[in-house]
Amino acid sequence: MTEFNKEIQKLKLALTSDCVLRCTHCFIDKSAGLTLRFEDAVRAIDLFLGSPGDYKRLELYGGEPFLRFDLLKRIVSFARRANRKARKRLFITVATSGVPLDEAKLAWLRENRVGLAVSFSGGRVTHDFSRVFPDGRGTHAVVGGKSALAVRHLRVGSLVALFCVHPRRAGRVYEDFKEVLAAGFFVVDVECVHGHGWDRESVRLFREGFDKVLRLVDRSIRAGRFVFLENFIEMLVCTSRDKFGCPFYRDFEMYPDGVYSLYPFGFVNGAADAARVRIGGGVKGLDKRFRSCSYPSPACAGCTRGYYVLERLRDGHAPYAYRNGRAEIFFKGVLEKVADDRRYSAYVREIRAMRESAYVF
Ligand code: SF4
User: Would you say 127 and 139 are in contact if contact means Cβ atoms under 8 Å apart?
Assistant: First the structure.
């Protein structure tokens, strides 16, 4: 195992650029025909597990990762084997459009203790606004059905709805969140698409809607019918915010061509953009400047200043930062109530239980 000096809490591996959908917000070139080489995945996992820190999250995505199910299984099996030596608490999860799911895949996920995130945007109009088949048809009915199947097969803590908010549908965040819950999900990851024109009004609408979502979560706690944001589990894992300043901690990715980059630049348009955001690769290793720097150090202050250079991918930052900040304040409030209110302590107990069952040796 390669020892690495900076903590990588989360590693994302994009298995392929192929996909069964043509979501209108997605920048991935689906005609590129790329598939991650197993050897590159092994090098990335080696670096990841060889880095400091006890809790490790490995996210497998695409394109559509289930189009490479054999590769996915091989990577999971390798990561589990490598972790026998590393002895970390390792959570492996797969992000899917939901379309290829079937009973056999869900059974495999359950047996191998692999989590699942299904991209689902709640209401039909919002979901079909961007999540479409190659012929333009909306996928709401199909993904809704597959979500119901996943809800029946997987435990609450292993299944997440990946609810990605588009700026043009920001005014419906609260209503769509309720639709996500109506589909049977209890854990929701609210994300914001990048590069699609978040202006002041759409950010304002998002903020309003997200505040309502948090009030709904609070009501769920007091009623004893718990609803969770996925960030809450992460907050119990990443307890030291200091580390967030280093991009290796949570933003490290490998693209299907075996190169490393930092979120949200895994997929970019064209060779010119790619050259600006790549930071090394499985074969040649990390770029020299990242090999031995350590956090915190004077170099860290300007470390990513020259990195986040693609303006069109920056516009999702405002709602994303709002989501993070508000969720954090909310969850701190929950933790403060634990000592005096059994409903809040039961809620936090449940999140801890989800963390312990997901992050396994
Ligand atoms: S220079 Fe950047 S990558 Fe290196 S340790 Fe500091 S923050 Fe992390």
Answer: yes
Q: Is the CB of 295 under 6 A from ligand 1?
A: yes
CA–centroid distance, residue 298 to ligand 1 (Å):
9
pLDDT confidence bin for 6, thresholds 50/70/90? very high
Q: How confident is the model at residue 302 (pLDDT cuts 50, 70, 90)?
A: confident
How far apart are alpha carbons 103 and 109 in whole angstroms? 10
Q: Find, among 232, 242, 243, the residue nearest to 355 by Cα.
A: 232
How high is the mean pLDDT of the chain?
A: 92
CB-based contact 113:148 (threshold 8 Å): no
Q: Whose CA is closest to 52, among 210, 311, 243, 300?
A: 243
- Domain segments of the chain: what residues? 10-358
Among 41-50, 161-170, 245-254, the minimum mean pLDDT is found in: 245-254
DSSP assignment letter at 158: G
| Cα-to-centroid distance, 324 and ligand 1 (Å) | 22
CA-CA-CA-CA dihedral for 161, 247, 255, 354, to nearest 10: -30
Closest CA to 269 of 69, 3, 11, 26: 26
Indicate which residue's Cα is closest to atom 1 of ligand 1: 300
Residue type for position 60: L
From the CB of residue 322, how many other CB atoms can be counted at a distance below 10 Å?
16
Q: Is the pLDDT of residue 341 over 70?
A: yes
Residue with tokens 């090999």: 291
Atom of ligand 1 nearest to the CA of 304: 2
Question: Whole-prediction pTM value?
Answer: 0.94
Which ligand 1 atom is nearest residue 294's CA? Answer: 5
- CATH code of the domain made up of 10-358: 3.20.20.70
- Residue 309 is predicted with a pLDDT of 62
Residue whose structure tokens are 């692999």: 114
What does the pLDDT look like over 29-40, one tens digit per residue? 888 899 999 999
State how far Cα 81 lies from the chain centre.
23
- The answer to whether residues 114 and 76 touch, using CB atoms and an 8 Å cutoff, is yes
Q: Among the atoms of ligand 1, which is closest to the Cα of residue 249?
A: 8
SS (H, E, C) 232-268: HHHHHHCCCHHHHHCHHHHCEEECCCCEEEECCCCCC
Residues 6+ apart with CB under 8 A from 153: 103, 106, 107, 109, 110
